[in-house]
Design goal:
By secondary structure, the protein is mostly helical. It has six helices and two strands.
């Protein structure tokens, strides 16, 4: 269950629920939930990554890797001498916005301007273009 501890009543409910579980000697997990990126942000990100891939001839997986490499300070981590990239699901709204802005800037520098999230007509057009090219990706 999720509770917003900033709301007095929910905070009481959270403590009450925890105490019921503790009294039953239950195994519990308590963790902070970060406000992750929005579904709208996620859809937009995948759309511009797909368009980038179509424009430069990359698969969606390849384009996603380029996006993460551009934002390696946010995505990359090392383990046992190897570099890995975490999931965009781990990002909050602010970090996601930062990575999208950076990707758009680098894409434009490379010759592929990407639409803003508010440019619905352009987004619809690139969605169709991605769909037409899907069998090549």
């Amino acid at each position: 269950m999720k509770f917003n501890t900033a709301v007095k009543e929910e905070k009481k409910q959270a403590f009450s629920y925890f105490m019921r579980l503790a009294n039953k000697k239950s195994l519990v997990e308590v963790k902070k939930i970060n406000p992750n990126r929005t579904l709208k942000q996620n859809s937009y990100l995948h759309l511009i990554i797909g368009y980038f891939g179509v424009h430069f001839g990359y698969t969606v997986s390849e384009a996603k890797l380029i996006y993460k490499e551009i934002n390696s300070d946010i995505y990359a981590y090392e383990k046992k001498g190897r570099t890995f990239y975490r999931s965009s699901a781990d990002l909050d709204k602010e970090a996601m916005a930062k990575t999208i802005d950076r990707f758009m800037e680098k894409s434009k520098e490379a010759g592929c301007e990407l639409p803003l999230a508010t440019d619905q007509e352009w987004l619809r057009q690139i969605e169709n273009e991605i769909e037409r090219a899907r069998h090549y990706l």
